[in-house]
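Annex B, item 7. Sequence and structure tokens for protein A, then protein B.
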Amino acid sequence: MKKKLNSGCAGILISLLIIVPSIAKGQSERAVEKKYLSELPKVQMAKTVQKYRMTAIYTNRDLYGNFTGKTMVSGDYTRGLPGDSSMWNNVYISSSNNFSDAFPTGTKQEYMENFRYIPSDKMMEEKSFKSFPKSVENVFARNLIWDMMSADIFAWNYYDSLKLNVPYIIPDIKGEFNMADIGNYSHNKIVLCWRGISEINGQLCALIEFNAIDNKLEITMDMIKTKGTEQYWGSILVSIKTKNIEHADMYSGTIQEIEVKGMKDKFLMKTIRELEIRRIQ
């Protein structure tokens, strides 16, 4: 009888050793889900100066996939300056006609050095770029500004509306708008989705994905005219403690019909853009 009792106790003990950790694990998982995956925490954005390095690589090909050239645009972006202003420094544009070659140092865009502004709708007006040269290359510099503003909008403006793995269509960004008098852009729709929690730079972050498909693009400048469509997508890591952007990536594909002044025939070109926003302070 004693032997059977001991065996029974041993069986109960073994069962407890199996069940208790399982219960604890289940409770721990539910606690994590409740804390981090039920909703994004309500936090105030930290009022500190932040610096980022943005790099965008444009790779051009014809419709058959043949490489025709590439351009790299990079710059240092500072936000959180007095008056909620932002500033750019060390903006370089570099090009290469060989796919496998590294980019040369490139040309510093002096008109962008200490270029300061308050991010707002006014940055879609031509007068905001009165210090920029009248050249095709300055479109790349403008894109740095507009892409950074887009990242800010996707990270912050709809933060409280996002639910885990539920696509959210931005209601107030749709239709055609003017790009500082150099052309027009028309969004079909922009979709955001909070996909989960990740970690970077020692910060727990909300992973927010975005995409915008079948957008129309038209540029008209002195030397060049283009017309085509663009798709873009990417992800942003937003700290759930400070609400600052810690990292972002964006990719886009554009197909355009291009007319260059002095050239007899129009031609078609496909451009792939790979963009990274990396926090450096």
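Protein B:
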Amino acid sequence: MILYFSATGNSLAVARQLAEQLHEELMPLVEATGVDLTNEKRIGLVFPTYDFNLPPALRDMIAQLRISPKSYVFTVITCGSMVGNCVWVLRRILREKGIELAYSHKVSVPDNSALAFGRNPNKQLGKFARVPARMEQIIRELQAESHTLHYSWFGLLSWLLGRPAIENGMIKALGPKVNPDKCIGCDICVRVCPMENIQLVESRKTKDRPSDSKQSDKVALTGDHCTVCLACVHACPQQAMTTHGHETLKERQYRNPQIKLKDLQLLPAKRK
């Protein structure tokens, strides 16, 4: 079973290839928290690194997973350049469940994190030229059930950024906000948000609109449990999401070339 978390498709593209080559099923990590996986002999965890760390929301999801200690558990992490303390943190979480992480590796992809949002990920597509060779290595080692932890060191900077006070402050500062003047209430952000942190509410400007206006009476509103994955920022067709106070530029919105928008939308069953 390959479990993935993906906001713009980088991790989903990697997870799909792993599932195909290893003949495994594919499942969003957010859905896997409610599934009994104790009969799975092989569990893969594919996700991005945020600020050189395992995304906060993923720590809770992974801690909830029901996995057998006998399973071969591995991780493949997508990142702009460095995985930071992702492997170290993941090992700690799994060990608390009596599970040992057998294998880890990384795949470098265009960087579209909140800290790097000033850069244009669409100008980093050259990184994909190195992906096939890395994936070939990873798949070969996983087929042999290698026990090798690549990039598993501990880093002080990553540890500091992961301290609750600093991390929560960064999430609050970098978390996307809605520009109600641009939002048209299309609900795409609602459907792509893996944290169910966005809802549509009645617009304050509804009463002032002309009777023949085609604009929705609803606008998006973000909540207080964002994990700063930026799925909403990159998916919004109106560029109505701001990041640390800056407007979103269309040319900097990114989605993995192999992934369609509908592939990133959560199933309706998760919207309860």
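Comment on protein B: Residues 209-214, 267-272 have pLDDT under 50 and may be disordered.
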